[in-house]
Request: fold
Amino acid sequence: MRKRILFFLLAIVPVVTFSQETSRTSAIGWPEQYTGVMLQGFSWDNYSQSRWSRLERQAGELAGWFDLVWIPNSGYCAQHNNMGYLPLYYWNQNSSFGTEAELRSLIRTFRQNGIATIADVVINHHNTNGWFGFPQETYQGETYQFLSTDICNNDDGGDALTEAAAQGVTLSSNKDSGEDWPGCRDLDHQSANVQRIVKAYEDYLLHDLGYAGFRYDMVKGYGAQYTALYNTASQPRFSVGECWDGSQTIKAWINGTQVDGVPTSAAFDFQFRYRVRDAFNGNDCRALLNTYTDANGTALSYDAGYRRWAVTFVENHDTQYRSESEPLDPLKCDTAAANAYMLAMPGTPCVFLPHWLDCKADIRRQIALRKLVGIHSQSAFQHIQQSAGAVANVVEGLHGSLIVAVGTGVSRYTPRDYASTHTLALEGRHYRYFIPNELMDQWRQTEAAIRQQEQAEREEEDGFQPYVATIYCKADFTPVYFYAWDSNPLLGNWPGKLMTGQTRVVDGESWYYMEFDIPTRDYEFNIIFNQGSGMAQTDDICGLSQTRFFTATLRDGKVVYEDVTDAHASGIMMPATSPSVGADGIYDLTGRRLSSIPSRGVYILHGKKIIK
Reply:
């Protein structure tokens, strides 16, 4: 159903697809007049929503709305529940969000659905074992390892140099080319070894894993010329830097990435975000005007010379959860209206995952209208209404103009000078969209297709019934603890629940077991088998939603696990759904009907369990 609706939408909305957009320009960093929309596919400390397997299942739903999805840093950080901003490994891609195989499957499925995947690249700093212990990695016969001499001489405000002297270790003779960041070792990007490793890593991300571009973390931490160096070497279609500062600093950073006079990277438009936040939280839309200035300057997307390089947003993982020093943070009201303003304006809009989940009906229609009118990154605009209670802009697209009005006073707003040429197409709490009369027939067809998709989704969700998944473990050591979590611990704090006496006989063997309620279709949880605090444990076993069997073996001070579910399918109970589940098709163990058997696992075919 979703595929048919997507094809219908693409047929009636004049959209430039990812493959078409990127094939028409050889420029790196960001295409000209880009019509795409980005999704930030994660939020802070929410590992369940951003699991690779869960995002992959949403590919069909995201397609048609989002052209780019930025996902968390996918490298292994040697910790469970790690967002990836303390990188320890580059080529080990088993992270808190899933395995390398799941990551590759996600990127491949996204691409098949016309979505490009953006990697979160953290190269300002690198984690260590101890102060200076960088791990060695091997890829395609080459060995890569940062050295102590790759650490900036003034790292951690001089503490690293003091520790190096105490340990008899030598650091780089170069000071940091950007701002210092405590907590990890700041890399010296003047080092030939650092440059060699980063270039190889980015080549791997693009040409092996299949990413389409980069989101560079904390680019103020090293010179902008190094972003130019790395992008020139790797040739990403998309590159955007997190330069969290005033607009003049951001513009200087963009200029610093130039090669032959052309920037090689876009940047996030922080001033646009602050304007939107101040307008809605402060109930004064005059913050959105291009005449409004403060110490941080004007928005990038308001400047015709920088619009192409502006990635706009109204919230992200940092601003929502970690900017307590900002009294107006986070965005507290009118989330749909804030996104409506962003999605009607120039720049490349980046929607925050929690906003998409909370305001899906509004944002779908806002994106559809943006694409119908052909608003792009370099669209021109002008204000046609300016007051504290309402701001309205007319924005020029490739197929006409869109008028967006936002504020507490727009419920009856009509653009008088455009009354004969534009019609109200969409309205919600504190926002309105008007489009050219000649596009209204296409919009009515699009709106009907969206309603059809939403009805199909409601029917699918209504067919779900909660069930119980059981996790079995057979271990060759004692004691055995189960530590489980979703967004919060499920069996108590670390090390979890001691499994003494918690056993069940399945297929003639005794297993430790624990049952978990699966309340919704997309719910997943994670587990670690361990010996107790300070003792050996498995890596994270993530993305669980079905009954699974594992063995856990103590080996060289580490607990190694193996999924042996296939060998014990007879011990799996089907979910408590209708007695006819599986009688007329293929179902997974959650009761979801499938068009085909997608991968290895246990399924219900014509009422009987099968193993693939």
In short: The domain at 467-611 is CATH 2.60.40 (Immunoglobulin-like). The chain has 15 helices and 30 strands. The chain has a mean pLDDT of 88.
